[in-house]
Amino acid sequence: MLVGVLSDTHDHLSAIRVALRRFAAAGITTLLHPGDLVAPFAARLLAEFSGEVHVTYGNNDGERKGLRDVLPRIQDGPLWLTLGGKRILLHHFIDWCRPADIAAADIVVTGHTHEVAVERRGGKLLLNPGECCGWLTGRCTIATLDLDTCDANIIELPI
User: Fold this and answer.
1) The model's pTM
2) CA–CA separation, 85 vs 66, rounded Å?
3) Which one of 5, 39, 78, 101 counts the least CB within 10 Å of its CB?
4) What is the pLDDT along the chain (159 residues), one digit of tens a residue?
5) How far apart are the C-alpha atoms of 78 and 50, rounded to whole Å?
6) How far apart are CA 7 and CA 36, in angstroms?
7) What is the DSSP string of 82-109?
């Protein structure tokens, strides 16, 4: 099972659209977004995605009611999911994850730092897809997560 991962979109609508088209072209039907959508108008793009969307709030998601109106399942992390037989912990920032939660997860997906990280630690995959917005690093990155192999592929988008 292939899952799409994007984080720290920060209202960059064209980057979100490109990412969603890329995921759709790959046949992806499940998305993970560990926060910092920022505004409801950006969240509407995710709400239009034809598959499942799992989202946590980030530290820049101040308009929480508006975001919840658009994405009713958005929540504070940690968000626990079981997909493809894997236990996934979704949270905005790795430092906000309790060690016991990391220990209980097969895969930990975070954002916040805007830096790409694909790390294996103690048999677990820790994934930060970097920033979809490209505002901080100048790189617009997303990831695909293969739940069958527990491998992540970082994709740089031309924005």
Assistant:
1) 0.97
2) 33
3) 101
4) 999 999 999 999 999 999 999 999 999 999 999 999 999 999 999 999 999 999 999 999 999 999 999 999 999 999 999 999 999 999 999 999 999 999 999 999 999 999 999 999 989 999 999 999 999 999 999 999 999 999 999 999 997
5) 24
6) 7
7) EETTEEEEE-S-GGGS-HHHHHH-SEEE
Tell which CATH classification among 3.30.365.10, 2.130.10.10, 3.60.21.10, 3.30.1330.10 matches the domain 2-157: 3.60.21.10
Please tell me whether residue 48 adopts helix, strand or coil conformation.
coil
Upstream peptide bond of 72 is cis (omega within 30 degrees of 0): no
Rg (CA), the chain: 14
Q: From residue 19, how far is each of 59, 69, 95, 136 by CA, in Å?
A: 22, 23, 26, 17
Residue with tokens 């505002």: 135
Which residue matches tokens 């954002």?
111
Which residue type does 75 have? Q
In the block, tokens 């430092």 appear at 95
Which pair of tokens denotes residue 55? Answer: 């989202």
